[in-house]
Fold this sequence. Notes:
Two copies of one chain form a homodimer. By secondary structure, chain A is an alpha/beta fold. Chain A has helices at about 5-20, 25-40, 40-60, 65-70, 75-90, 125-140, 150-170, 185-190, 205-215, 240-250, 265-280, 290-295, 325-335, 350-355; strands at about 95-100, 105-115, 115-120, 140-145, 175-180, 200, 230, 260-265, 285-290, 300, 315-320, 340-345, 360-365, 385, 395, 400-415. Helices cover about 40% and strands about 20% of the residues of chain A. In chain A, the strands form four sheets. Chain A has a seven-stranded parallel β-sheet with strand order 10-9-11-8-7-12-13, sandwiched between helices. In chain A, strands 5-4-3-6 form a four-stranded parallel β-sheet, sandwiched between helices. In chain A, helix 2 packs antiparallel against helix 5 and helix 5 packs parallel to helix 6. The first copy, chain A, starts with a helix and ends with a strand.
Amino acid sequence: xxxxxxxxxxxxxxxxxxxxxxxxxxxxxxxxxxxxxxxxxxxxxxxxxxxxxxxxxxxxxxxxxxxxxxxxxxxxxxxxxxxxxxxxxxxxxxxxxxxxxxxxxxxxxxxxxxxxxxxxxxxxxxxxxxxxxxxxxxxxxxxxxxxxxxxxxxxxxxxxxxxxxxxxxxxxxxxxxxxxxxxxxxxxxxxxxxxxxxxxxxxxxxxxxxxxxxxxxxxxxxxxxxxxxxxxxxxxxxxxxxxxxxxxxxxxxxxxxxxxxxxxxxxxxxxxxxxxxxxxxxxxxxxxxxxxxxxxxxxxxxxxxxxxxxxxxxxxxxxxxxxxxxxxxxxxxxxxxxxxxxxxxxxxxxxxxxxxxxxxxxxxxxxxxxxxxxxxxxxxxxxxxxxxxxxxxxxxxxxxxxxxxxxxxxxxxxx
Amino acid sequence: xxxxxxxxxxxxxxxxxxxxxxxxxxxxxxxxxxxxxxxxxxxxxxxxxxxxxxxxxxxxxxxxxxxxxxxxxxxxxxxxxxxxxxxxxxxxxxxxxxxxxxxxxxxxxxxxxxxxxxxxxxxxxxxxxxxxxxxxxxxxxxxxxxxxxxxxxxxxxxxxxxxxxxxxxxxxxxxxxxxxxxxxxxxxxxxxxxxxxxxxxxxxxxxxxxxxxxxxxxxxxxxxxxxxxxxxxxxxxxxxxxxxxxxxxxxxxxxxxxxxxxxxxxxxxxxxxxxxxxxxxxxxxxxxxxxxxxxxxxxxxxxxxxxxxxxxxxxxxxxxxxxxxxxxxxxxxxxxxxxxxxxxxxxxxxxxxxxxxxxxxxxxxxxxxxxxxxxxxxxxxxxxxxxxxxxxxxxxxxxxxxxxxxxxxxxxxxx
Lengths: 415, 415
């Protein structure tokens, strides 16, 4: 399928102007309408997804990628439920975040407004198509979605449902556009259109992020990898720490907020590591340890240099013994990805130091890294987790998809 | 003067790590100390500024640029006063912007934190050097300042005072570094160091913004030109509207928030334009009008096509008659720069429409565009006015120089 960057961007820009005038009730009705369409169109979605899966198998995609590509009945229901949840959330557009009466007599307000046109580039999962549309649309933005080539038919089926819902309520159908082609030159052309597109959100691995970083002239908020650390301090509550570390690795090994490296204080290592190794082994997790860890845990294998700072996305965890909090902080600063890092400690001074010096998008104390998630942190829904410090850092929900501008009302003031 | 991008960026990164631990009182003491140094070093500053001016005259700089380059006694005092004002403002670092107890038992806070390392690129004015340092430093960021070549000696004198204040209080002297060289290749190298530098803020004209836009791999918040519009609606209060339009052009013609184009409703044109033309002529302002304006105001000259959307930065204003609010909004959307636009109207429906459809960083009703300014909008101080919708839109003060990250405290929660 061919695409022409200029015309896609121009259509999105026109839709975005119309969206600033679309009332909240209309936006919510469209989201609920789409939920019904998805529920009643399950068979069509499964057929499209089966076609994607068959093609992927022909192309020899690995089993882990096939799993991410498959749209189960539960996943389809989750998309519909997610749409209703977003419809239930308050509309961020028009929210007043600052309200001042100035000595000049001016009434100054800071008001949330749509960003405009958002280009989202992501990989295989088709549910992202619906999540991204729902959040961008509810926050008044037109979106251009570039999904993974593998999910082309699933995405196309979902898109046609979204377009039908928009049309039924008289909203601009170009509020969402899908790019299924993987023509790199066209993609580069699109990434140069900073007059028409206000924000690009790449969500994925090294190669995708690097491509966008290199070619984009559009402001970017990246959702990059989560190289998440847990530091187990000398004063950690050992049974709780074991539970946290095991569940942070095993409850969703391929999630970006799963832990990848454990840093264990040397004073607690003898007590902690053997039990940890045992529990991890039972959960089918491979331990890659430094020399001390390998001595304390016979089932551990020696970690290679490149295992530090690596996002395994699998049942593998790297474990290293550190002399204290300073070494732990230095390790996180060097190898972390600004995503999610936790300290397990009963020492309040150490908790504070970790929070102050580890500047990841979410720094946690005495709980699992898996809590860095829009629902768990009270955002209601998220489009992904930003590892960019600019604009939005951490889970990006509806508010993070808006900008804030000043609206000032006077009665003749000059200056 | 040669500079080596890598080493400058690495020193800034190291300083930024230390700054996350610098207490508010120390930061404030350094800002006040620098105010005193500037006051007592006025002679040294004037000597440096004289050297810059002499060089600029030798190079044939136009009078308007020489005026911007000159550091008057009042300007020096303003820098010292500005430093004390920033010291008096609350420290944004550590401010809690969201505070939730989740059903999981987690205590979730969103906390303001420094961005890290900020590269600021600006043009001739030396006072920006002090403003930028004060705001970046107070918000916990290390900054790299690239000032205009013309102001090299003035900037160097100011920098050495800032470094002395940092050193006196044991803060990292690399919290602020100045680049006086204009080596474009080195600048491009610096703009590629997205691992070390978190944000670039270019503040200036077309050429500067384009250069940074083209070469930067670092997230950018741009402070671009202000092509500011005032729409005089049919129901405007004419005497007030005249005062607002004249002062918005004349009170600081070279300011980015000065008005550049007036759009006048056709129904009020006969009543409004002749008086406007008269008052503007008295103030020495050249009117460039469309055909109708030229008929109504004999002193107006015909506007050229390129006068619409042009930032004159001078005693010149373009005036156009429009058929109504839709044409006015369309004009602003086409020619505006997302900076500042105002409507003068007694019709509340039209006020609302203008606010909703003109999405500039500051949209004003019944007052001058000159109020889009950090002090006037209650920010206390500003580093400039962002025309980027991402991260910060409008005046950038201390809060806008921070990021917000999540700090989550639990007592053993797994997920």
